[in-house]
Amino acid sequence: MTTINLKRYYPYMTENVMLEVSDEIAAALSMGGRLCDSYKRQKRRNGECSLDTDPGFEADVLRQPMTPDEYIEAQETTFALYDALTQLPPTQARRVYQHYLLGMSKAEIAAAEGVGRSRICCSIERGLATMKNILKKSL
C-alpha cells in the first residue's frame, strides 16, 4: 500500500487529503501525471494553439485574404506614410521612425540620444502634426 496526496492529482482541492491506495493505482496515477506533464511540454515546444486562447495565429487564419483593390490601397497608404516621413527634418523623422516603427519607448530614444524625454515627446508630436498636414494634402 502507498500513501498519496489527492491534492497533487486533483488541483481544485483546497486541502491536503492523504489516502492509502494499492501500488498499482499509485503507479497508474504517477504515470498519468508524467504523461500530462510531457504533453504540456510538447504543446509549449510545438506552439500548439487553441482557437479559444490569446495570443495566437487565429486572426491570420480567420481573416479573409485581401482583395487586389485592398492590397493596392494598403500599398499606396504605406508609400504615402513613408513619403511624409521622408519630408520631415532628419531628427524628427528618426525619432518618429524609432518610436512607431521600431517600437522603442520615448525613454529609450532619449537615453540613446542623451537628451531629455520631454524633448523626444515634443519632437515626435511636431513630427506627427507635420505628417498629418502632408497627408491631408496628398490623400
Task: Looking at this protein, list some descriptive labels.
single chain, 139 residues, mainly alpha, 68% helix
Largest sheet: 2 strands, antiparallel
Tell me, briefly, the overall form: elongated
Helix content: 55-70%
| Number of helical elements | 7
Amino-to-carboxy terminus distance: 80 Å
Strand content: 5-15%
Total strand count, please? 2
InterPro entries: RNA_pol_sigma_r3/r4-like, WH-like_DNA-bd_sf
Protein name: Sigma-70 family RNA polymerase sigma factor
Organism: Dysosmobacter segnis
Report on this structure.
- The model has no long low-confidence stretch (mean pLDDT 84).
- The chain has helices spanning 6-9, 23-46, 58-62, 68-86, 90-101, 106-113, 117-138, and strands at residues 2-5, 18-21.
- It contains seven helices and two strands.
- Helix 4 (68-86) crosses helix 7 (117-138) and helix 5 packs across helix 7.
- Strands 1-2 form a two-stranded antiparallel ribbon.
- It is mainly alpha-helical and 139 residues long.
- Helices cover 68% and strands 6% of the residues.
- The chain starts with a strand and ends with a helix.
